[in-house]
Amino acid sequence: MVEAAEAQVLEALVAKLKEDPSLIYDPKLAVFKDFILSWGAKVPEAKPQPKPQAKAPEPEPAKVEEEEEEEEPEEPEDPDPDRLEKDPEPYPSPGPAGELDLTDDQLNKQGELKQAAAEALEDGDLAKAVEKMTQAFEIGNVSAMMYTQHWRCSASLGKTSRQFHGP
């Protein structure tokens, strides 16, 4: 059975060949040409390709200093319907910068918050998962995995990644 996409590609090829039958002699279409010939079809004779004429080099026009034209500002494109809107401020804190020596209590608290975020995610409560991940960020030593998980939940809620990068 032929897939619809394959049939469309074949239809497009046939349309091009109807417009310019000489395309059948393109080496990329050799298999196709051999196939239709094996069924007894006739293909038009190859027309000799006109030889490109060597052009005499054109003299360079005299350089005239032109006043620089002011470029018109580009018109803004239509907004992308899939683009997420900018989140309103205030943005959540990304947590302390740099590597910190966390205490056992801080590590335990961060682990509990990450676990609570994972459970909220399993329950489908994305807002709670984002909240718990944000609280875990505030403790410090945020890993790439934590940022990734937070971003995935935020994006699913329709929030942008600007919350950690500023406006």
Report on the structure:
Pfam families: HipN. There is one protein chain. By secondary structure, this protein is an all-alpha fold. It has helices at residues 4-19, 30-38, 104-122, 126-139, 144-156. Helix 3 packs antiparallel against helix 4 (126-139) and helix 4 packs antiparallel against helix 5 (144-156). The longest helix is centred in the C-terminal third of the chain and has 19 residues, at 104-122. The radius of gyration is 32 Å and the shape is elongated. The two termini are 53 Å apart.
Ranges with pLDDT <50 over ≥5 residues?
163-167
The profile of the biggest β sheet is: none
Query: Count of DSSP helices?
Result: 5
Radius of gyration: 32 Å
Give the rounded overall mean pLDDT. 75
* Count of DSSP strands: 0
- Span of the ends, CA to CA: 53 Å
Q: Strand portion, in percent?
A: under 5%
Q: What is the 3D form?
A: elongated
Fraction of helical residues: 40-55%
Structure classification: mainly alpha
Series of secondary-structure elements, N-terminal to C-terminal: HHHHH
Organism: Durusdinium trenchii
Domain Hsp70-interacting protein N-terminal: 5-44
InterPro entries: Hip_N
Biased composition (Acidic residues): 65-80
Topology:
Blueprint: H1 4-19, H2 30-38, H3 104-122, H4 126-139, H5 144-156
Helix pairs in contact: 3-4, 4-5
